[in-house]
Design a protein that fits this description.
Blueprint: E1 6-14, H1 16-22, H2 27-37, E2 45-51, E3 55-62, E4 65-69, E5 73-74, E6 79-82, E7 88-95, E8 100-107, E9 110-119, E10 122-129, E11 134-141
Antiparallel strand pairs: 1-2, 1-11, 2-3, 3-4, 3-5, 6-7, 7-8, 8-9, 9-10, 10-11
Length: 142
């Protein structure tokens, strides 16, 4: 069982605007994303992970209100689906032990690697584009 299972509230975010610009999120969608995906505190961004031996499911909440729920996706297999801005991307999700989840995403003009890893009591998510733009987001378990 993965230690990442459960709900995690965003506590801080560095360089996220540059990251979403680098992966090609349009100006209008970028404004919406920044307003929502940078929110912390009561009513702020909460990500919930449900990981088992063969799949992962991720849900996004603002406070206790469900915003978006992804279907279960297979581990270790490439799949196609919508990104948060609804662009169709190809991705592969893998686990490296109970404390680390990696998602490699290939979009229309980019590739990105997202590593979610537990460090002490925090979940640290590092998002890195193939061009080297990096964002670090930190979460606490709720």
């Amino acid at each position: 069982m993965s230690n990442l299972n459960g709900s995690w509230a965003l506590t801080s975010s560095e360089n996220f605007e540059a990251y979403i610009e680098a992966i090609g999120v349009s100006g209008e969608n970028r404004e919406k994303a920044l307003k929502l995906l940078l929110s912390t505190g009561d009513g702020g961004l909460v990500e919930k992970f449900e990981i088992d031996d063969s799949s992962v499911k991720r849900s996004i909440y603002f406070g206790d209100k469900l915003f978006k729920e992804s279907p279960k996706v297979p581990l270790n297999e490439e799949f196609e689906g919508p990104a948060l801005d609804e662009r169709i991307v190809k991705a592969t999700v893998t686990t490296d032990g109970p404390n680390r989840l990696t998602r490699v995403e290939k979009g229309p003009d980019y590739q990105s690697t997202v590593v979610a890893e537990i460090h002490g009591s925090q979940l640290v998510v590092t998002l890195t584009t193939d061009g080297g733009v990096q964002s670090i987001r930190k979460y606490k378990k709720v």
